[in-house]
Design brief:
The structure holds two protein chains of two kinds. By secondary structure, chain A is of the alpha+beta class. Chain A contains 21 helices and eight strands. By secondary structure, chain B is α+β, with helices and mostly antiparallel strands. In chain B, 53% of the residues lie in helices and 7% in strands. In chain B, a hairpin with a 4-residue loop joins strand 7 and strand 8. The chains are: A alpha+beta, B alpha+beta.
Chain lengths: 451, 458
């Protein structure tokens, strides 16, 4: 842009926001976002993919300086960011900003915990970096417009690296100019093509974004020069990554209108467009007699369902998260939908596969993306229908505090029994905490301290 | 459906080569290694390399693997990172014109670190470099110019695939894991041309090399990636080169080797300047001691587009100044890294000569052709036309020229080891382990201490 030759206005704006007071409502929602991300990371702390990354970090990583939610190991900052970002995203149970389809919590959590711990930052600075890492991602996502995602990019990763550079840069104490350099260096480290969906690396996109952002901040801190012109530079981030950018969205209303406020938490561990379908399936399940024979299932849905979740017979838990037929099948069969319904075992179950085969997805342009109409035809000729206007967890029908608490509890208790309240307290006490000590004590197993 | 490109490349990357490599292909691989290791070691003290090294050292990685021209040691991933930066930072590396990729930096950096880690022989290193370069160059050519025209920097983006292939081969990945490694590389392929003119340009191959090593290490442990990352839905081709013909990528795979088209830079700047520099270097002696009134260069129009910076104020800018390139060619008879240092750029003799250079576009000239005319004070004129620049496909650098380039660029850093590094690298396939090569890449501290002493006491 002509009046921003160094592309530093965005960086300077983030820098200024970090030094000011965040509005109470934003801070509160930031807390909820972090709690949700942290709980999900704990829940997935021993996922096979996380085990691999932790193993890599132990063998090839540097001096361990950062703990991992739900685990006994410590890793260096880079590998910790990778592992935490992966854990927070692998179950597809995190958060969604529906307009951009970004899941901002994972990369933001990873970078703020890893760099915050490594640099001994205060709780307030960690919280602020987390919130601004989210906000930066979302604004970048708005600027990229839906065309970027439609073209095949995993915007959670491509925007994630920019948000992570902001978060890492703030926690490293970079000034506005250095932050601009960090952003520019991060722009050359974008991560995420949608071809990766259904594989472990897709889950690692926000983790890799966080690790790359950390690297960008370290380089900028030492004077590594970034490209001139920022994200709007010719042959730069916006020009290359999308056919149709809206760079104004970066700064428009920044500090007054917070995109983070429109971040929602997933009630089910699956692609967000399946959620109204699951809601409908669960409601219908409660009306069905046990062993009711289902002959056909029809789902009227938004076009995105077909685009993102049409896979009729997923062969793994990871893939099942992006299968609307699977989602409605387990909802109808099990009457409850949580992590178990998206396990490898459930994905390959014959009974589930049979019901999946009876599901028909019908795209209806009039149906909104958080809406669905599910009709079940039984062997005895009866037809049951459920119309969900706004899915649980959507902007119109967000999870209330009790529902979020229940989700957090269900994720944390199996890994860290009895610790949920301590984690919640430590998180809410973060703005006054001198460092992350209390939070780590709450979110890592006791075995570590006995050693 | 369409050609299973990723699977074919993965199979090629893993397959034993067993003496089926044509002699000239093996030699192209050796030359690629000589050139990359030499320019990388030569750049060991470049500010960008220092910063990259210091940054990753903060993570305190286990100090195992070689950093070119330095005593420090890093983990394989970070050694590949710093070395990738070093090989590319002076624009003195290699060029594959058809794909616009500089394969040495991402591929050799990833290969060296992986070879050390795996305890590989020189022959295995050579094969990995050949395979990695081939994967990168074939994808680069096969996907066509769309991504480059869009603004992607293929040394960074496609470099990721070459690095993953080389690293994966050395780590012994099977077919399936190699497909995952390539898929991980695809989803991490990055690098924007906006970075040109900043240190971030050199980051691109460094990141490609380190991500490639990491991808291979992950895949070896069972970390999955997409199996058809290149040609699959929402994959590399669909997102960055939708008009590409995937079949081109694998046509003649294993029989025709793109790596034969890799050329080495005789000068530390973009290749479009090289014919002009050749002409200037050739005219240095004839015009020595004479007073020059004017210098006229006739060049392919692209030269003015990418190298039109008439009055550079620092080293980085000077690499984009054909005026500067011609001036140092005439004055120093060279255009190596020293000719693009800040001090040389600002020196009075260089500034004076730069100011009398005028450049005219000659649309009929190919990119490796240029003509230089020097008008002397009074009567007298010298002219030189170069039809094929040194290092171009039609006039590649000979082994002797490459050896001389390599020895010259490493001598300030490796000192007495300069000759032995070049000798070892030219015979890399005879090495049983990386040990001797790594030793030859150590800096000559005695020379360094002497230089420091001189500074302190002067």
């Amino acid at each position: 842009m002509a009046d921003d030759p160094t592309g530093s206005r965005f960086a300077q704006a983030m820098f200024d926001l970090a030094r000011g007071e965040l509005p109470e409502e934003v801070a509160a929602h930031g807390h909820r976002t972090m709690l949700n991300a942290l709980a999900v990371a704990v829940g997935a702390s021993h996922h096979a993919a996380v085990e691999i990354v932790v193993g890599l970090g132990l063998e090839h990583g540097g001096r361990p300086t950062v703990k991992l939610p739900g685990r006994v190991e410590e890793l260096d900052g880079y590998h910790a960011a990778l592992a935490i970002g992966l854990a927070a995203h692998v179950d597809d149970y995190d958060d969604t900003h529906l307009q951009t389809v970004i899941h901002p919590g994972a990369a933001a959590l990873a970078v703020s915990l890893a760099v915050g711990q490594w640099r001994g930052a205060s709780g307030a600075r960690v919280m602020s970096a987390f919130i601004l890492a989210c906000e930066a991602q979302l604004r970048v996502g708005l600027a990229l417009t839906p065309r970027h995602f439609q073209a095949g990019w995993h915007v959670t990763g491509t925007s994630g690296v920019i948000g992570a550079a902001v978060g890492a840069g703030l926690l490293c104490g970079l000034n506005g100019e250095q932050l601009a350099d960090a952003i520019g260096i991060a722009a050359s480290q974008t991560v995420g093509l949608r071809v990766a969906h259904g594989t472990m690396i897709k889950a690692a996109h926000p983790g890799k974004a966080a690790a790359n952002g950390l690297l960008a901040a370290l380089l900028a801190e030492r004077g590594f020069s970034g490209p001139a012109g920022g994200l709007q530079a010719p042959r730069g981030y916006f020009e290359v990554l999308t056919d149709h950018a809206c760079p104004r969205a970066l700064l428009d209303g920044l500090g007054e209108r917070w995109e983070l406020s429109r971040n929602t938490f997933k009630p089910y561990p699956s692609g967000v467009v399946t959620h109204p379908i699951i809601d409908a399936g669960l409601a219908l399940a409660s009306q069905l007699k046990p062993r009711a024979e289902i002959e056909a299932v029809e789902v009227r849905c938004h076009p995105l369902v077909l685009e993102l979740t049409a896979q009729p017979q997923p062969s793994s838990g990871l893939m099942a998260r992006f299968s609307a037929p699977h989602a409605v099948a387990v909802a109808l069969l099990d009457g409850v939908v949580g992590l178990e319904q998206f396990s490898d075992a459930r994905a390959t179950d014959q009974g589930v596969a049979r019901l999946r085969g009876l599901v028909k997805l019908i795209v209806d342009e009039r149906v909104a993306s958080d809406e669905a109409i599910v009709t079940v035809r039984l062997a005895d000729g009866r037809e049951l229908e459920r119309h969900v206007c706004h899915a649980r967890g959507s902007l119109a029908h967000p999870l209330d505090d009790a529902e979020l608490d229940a989700k957090v509890r269900a994720l944390v208790e199996p890994v860290l029994p009895g610790r949920t309240d301590r984690i919640v307290d430590a998180l809410y006490g973060l703005p006054l905490a001198a460092d992350l000590g209390l939070l780590w004590d709450a979110v890592t197993p006791a075995a570590q301290r006995r050693a | 459906m369409s050609t299973p490109v990723t699977a074919r490349l993965a199979g090629f990357a893993c397959a034993p080569l067993d003496g089926s490599i044509p002699r000239e292909v093996a030699h192209a691989g050796r030359r690629t290694i000589v050139n990359a290791l030499a320019v990388g070691a030569g750049a060991a003290r470049h500010p960008a390399v220092e910063i990259a090294l210091r940054s990753v050292e903060l993570l305190e990685p286990a100090p195992r693997r070689c950093v070119l021209g330095r005593r420090e040691r890093l983990s394989p991933q970070w050694a590949a990172f710093v070395n990738g930066v070093a090989i590319h930072v002076e624009d003195y590396d290699d060029t594959h014109l058809a794909s616009m990729i500089h394969p040495g930096a991402p591929v050799v950096a990833a290969a060296l670190a992986s070879a050390e880690h795996a305890g590989a022989s020189g022959q295995e290193l050579l094969e990995a470099v050949l395979v990695g370069a081939e994967v990168a160059l074939r994808v680069g050519v096969g996907i066509g110019p769309e991504p480059f025209d869009r603004g992607w920097h293929p040394t960074g983006t496609i470099g990721h695939l070459g690095a993953a292939a080389a690293a994966g081969r050395l780590l012994g990945l099977d077919d399936r894991a190699m497909r995952w490694a390539l898929g991980i590389a695809v989803t991490e392929a990055a690098g924007l041309q906006a970075a040109l003119g900043s240190m971030t340009k050199a980051l691109h191959p460094g990141k490609a090399a380190s991500d490639g090593v990491e991808a291979a290490l992950l895949a070896a442990r069972g970390f999955t990636g997409p199996s058809a990352g290149i040609e699959g839905r929402r994959g590399l081709i669909e997102t960055t080169a939708p008009n590409a013909n995937p079949e081109l990528i694998v046509r003649g795979l294993g029989q025709e080797w793109r790596v034969l088209e890799n050329t080495f830079k005789p000068y530390a700047c973009g290749i479009v300047a090289h014919p002009s520099i050749d002409a200037a270097v050739a005219l240095r002696e004839p015009i020595a001691g004479r007073s020059i009134r004017a210098i006229h260069a006739s060049v392919n129009p692209v030269v003015l587009e990418v190298m039109g910076h008439a009055e550079p104020t620092n080293g980085l800018e000077s690499k984009f100044s054909i005026h500067h390139c011609i001036a140092v060619g005439l004055l120093d008879g060279a255009a190596g890294p020293d000719q693009f240092r800040d001090e040389r750029v600002l020196a009075a003799d260089v500034r004076a000569l730069r100011s009398i250079v005028s450049v005219d576009p000659e649309p009929s000239f190919a990119r490796d052709r240029a003509r230089l005319r020097i008008d002397l004070e009074g009567d007298g004129m010298f002219e030189r036309e170069v039809h094929h620049a040194t290092g171009s496909r039609m006039r590649p650098m000979s082994d002797v020229e490459l050896a001389r380039k390599a020895e010259t660029v490493v001598r300030p850093v490796l000192g007495r080891r300069a000759a032995s590094l070049v000798e070892l690298a030219f015979a890399v396939d005879e090495l049983k382990t990386m040990g001797p090569l790594v030793d030859a890449l150590l800096p000559d501290e005695e020379d360094l201490d002497t230089a420091l002493e001189k500074t302190l006491w002067s």
